[in-house]
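Board notes, transcribed. Complex of a protein with CU-O-CU linkage.
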Amino acid sequence: GLARHYKFSVVMKNTTKLCASKPIVTVNGKFPGPTLYAREDDTVLVQVVNHVSYNVTIHWHGVRQLRTCWSDGPAYITQCPIRPGQSYVYNFTLTGQRGTLLWHAHITWLRSTLHGAIVILPKRGVPYPFPKPSKEKIIILGEWWKADTELVISQSVQSGLPPNISDAHTINGHPGPFPSCSSQGYTLHVESGKTYLLRIVNAAVNDELFFKIAGHNLTVVEVDASYTKPFSIDTIFIAPGQTTNVLLAAHQSGGTYLMAISPFMDTIVGVDNLTATGIMQYSGTHVSTATVRASIPAINATSVEFSFINSLQSLNSKRYPANVPLAIDHSLLFTMSVGVNPCSTCVNGSKLVAALNNVSFVMPSTDILEAHYHKIRGVYTDNFPGNPPMTFNYTGTPPSNMQTMNGTRVYKLAYNSTVQIVLQGTSIIAPENHPTHLHGFNFFAVGKGLGNYDPNKDPKNFNLVDPVERNTIGVPTGGWTAIRFRADNPGVWFLHCHLEVHTTWGLKMVFIVEDGDGPSESLLPPPSDLPKC
Ligand code: C2O
């Protein structure tokens, strides 16, 4: 592969949306940020230079980072932050992946404005496993706050109360439409008879989204940089951190068609429930033409979510086989919960916390990867529980003695061991859908169900042939999801809910994958410019 060099200057940029201006943190002054283009097998070197007063890190969400955990990016997990005035070169090779991913800041809530797409094209001379589109377009979905998002989250942490919800959703940076603020929304220009590949990225902070275009079905061909068996559907469901590539055939002769994103949340209110719309406009069509409308899914349209998710299967072709682990070395069950703990300085004397297996993760002040590599003691403990501390009816009435524990706990995996994790949603405080992201791996989503996972019955229904391969997966409200992967990537790997509010509350944990014995089975040494804590 080639070496691709990028420079990301992190700079403030005064930005006006919804009739209000604020300075935002950007890469190179752009919102959404620049797209990173490469081919499979290329090596990408991104020099990130921090010109703002915040500490910064960038995460390459979904990039495997084989042996290059030092370039993964989550603050205090794999590196110390890049301080104001400092720079760091992220250096990684794109191995075994092709499609769309995203990059985003991985510290506090900076990712609300610090994000962009990663496009990984197939190796030169290798075609897509679907008809070649005439054109490709990137569609980045986001959330916009009129207030400074760093203030929104720090006030929430201090008070123990939930953070303020966003003021709008955005399509490629356009909230829309807000005619009173002269914002018309995003326009996708198309020509009749052509087919477009839309690379859709959900970069929202806290909202899972539906995406649709009136009068046009979408053919899904890829999610999270893994090919899928193509299927046609009218509404896409996409969680924060997920990416979906679809073919859009511009089969109408002309006209304008509504493009809409709306949030999905099946139990709780307290999300930005505004629909953002844009326009798909055929060339030669006047803007004044009446736009064909679409029916927007209800906020709790679980059936729309499920019909999308249930259609996903990995392509599992000869060239792109699905190597699902069949024998399992580590069989883990993680409960996911949101609860309250006492807090004497908080407004109500309590604060919201979130936990996996009843442990709310505490961020260390030295990154775990350096502690692991240099054998520094006292940074973490390796006693993260592989199973819930007590069994109970997870989706029923929770026990009353469930006060959440705090800890910087990790779970260790031997190199190349096989892992199954059942992510079990619970109804402690509030049942919610948790889009869960694992760094450093693609995993197979082998099963899901409602209610409590039954280890005797449910595995019989697992799909071990062509389960979808992802890096971020929803755990249904009042239900569970099972994933499998092979721990073939040495290093320190974060697992967390990709609703940033839940991450902030502690819904996160860390795997350490030990080095193997072979010469190419161990973590490479840290780069010399690795930021210091
Ligand atoms: Cu996209 Cu750990 O995050």
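Residues 59, 61, 74, 104, 106, 241, 437, 439, 494, 496, 498 surround CU-O-CU linkage (CB under 6 Å). The mean pLDDT is 95.
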